[in-house]
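Protein modeling request. Please complete all fields; requests missing the sequence field cannot be processed.
Requester role: graduate student
Desired output: 3D structure, token encoding
Chains: 1
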Amino acid sequence: MMTKKEQRLRRARQTRIRIATQGVARLTVNRTNLHIYASVVSGDGAKVLASASTAQPDVRKSLGGTGKGGNAAAAQIVGKLIAEKAKAIGIAQVAFDR
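Delivered output (98 residues):
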């Protein structure tokens, strides 16, 4: 019987294999209570091509205070920022990798 951790890692591996067959970059999103982080990773997983988060000073100013980095408004700002950065380096399509 597999442990919970082994099951989670197996699911993640299967997802990454499926994304690799598509030949596009991966979009990874991580949310904590305080911040939201998004990264565009190359198709082979070797390099982070673009990243954005609510921990960046310019994004924090636009949110208007501390403790507001983990809500829906913050997610919208980070989403727009990561999309702009990805388009700037020529990435038009990504696969969402939880």
